[in-house]
């Protein structure tokens, strides 16, 4: 579809407030240099938010230009912006999650939606590896002792010790996609045994896993899992996927990791298990409510390592991969080739 002047337009709305997520000048140059013939790029100067799956109130500047856009490249897309963009053929989100973008009008439209699934896999796998090792080696106890000026080996070498090697660990990864597979690949290289859960187990075993099972078959694996990792998208099927009853099936020294979205977990039930020592600890990057309220008991739990939804941060690597994906898809879109990361609007990812 072309505009009245025959020019096709891409609107790039990536001036995120957070520096790591703001398109750098070199990235803008890369887009300009690789634009297919006949396309104009409009770079929005106004700041936007990279938080969540999109939906942040759009700036006036982007509202003013989106009407002529055939392609929109941003962090999700607000409903009001979509409604002001009648010529759209394709939305690419620089976020992996698209929960906030799949509102009724998008679902009912023919507009192609692509996301950044897999793009964040490397930094997130490294983040999780660090977090798992932190608890496995009792470095949480080490930090407490250091702050208090205590020299005490018993927490590490006494009868209550929970120190373990990665090669003793059986890891269950719910969501065997880009992120889950990158983690499993690294853990397997270090000797762990990884089982993945994917929605379509028949589509094969992604790299790093010994085997995969489907959404109905992972509960029985919990008693033999030393680490449970949540890396699946937030969809209608995954809401409150991890209940207290499932957490109770894990062994008492198990480690819980969530980098997906807070909506996948019953956070109250998780807090109970962590506070009573029913779990060894947790590594959490995402929460039911973000920012995490100051009243949350999670702040005070010594066996929780938490971060404010930043596990994917990797300014250089991100733009390299993100722009490669976008440019490949842009040319694919123009040439009518199959595009990568096309979101299944019904499945929600
Ligand atoms: P992918 O699309 O590559 O992987 C998603 C995986 O989840 C696939 O293996 C898929 O199965 C599986 N899955 C889907 N539904 C279910 C289900 N009901 N039960 C079990 N598994 C299921 O995405 P990514 O790995 O790149 O990202 C995953 C999620 O991580 C994102 O949707 C996002 O919410 C979150 N994320 C968080 C970030 C952060 O900053 N904390 C940053 C980036 C992503 P199948 O392969 O069979 O389709």
Describe this structure in words.
It is a single chain. The protein is an alpha/beta fold and about 350 residues long. It folds into 2 domains: about 10-115 and about 315-335, NAD(P)-binding Rossmann-like Domain (Rossmann fold, 3-Layer(aba) Sandwich); about 120-305, Rossmann fold (3-Layer(aba) Sandwich). Helices cover about 30% and strands about 15% of the residues. It contains 11 helices and 12 strands. The protein has helices at about 25-35, 60-65, 80-85, 105-110, 120-135, 140-150, 155, 180-190, 245, 265-275, 315-335; strands spanning about 10-15, 40-45, 70-75, 90-95, 110-115, 170-175, 195, 210-215, 225-230, 255-260, 280-285, 305. The strands form 2 sheets. It has a 7-stranded parallel sheet, covered by helices on one side. It has a 5-stranded parallel sheet with strand order 2-1-3-4-5, with helices on both faces. Helix 9 links the parallel strand 9 (about 225-230) and strand 10 (about 255-260). Helix 1 packs parallel to helix 11 and helix 5 crosses helix 8. It starts with 7 loop residues before the first strand and ends in a 14-residue tail after the last helix. NADPH dihydro-nicotinamide-adenine-dinucleotide phosphate binds next to helix 8. NADPH dihydro-nicotinamide-adenine-dinucleotide phosphate binds near residues 118 and 198.
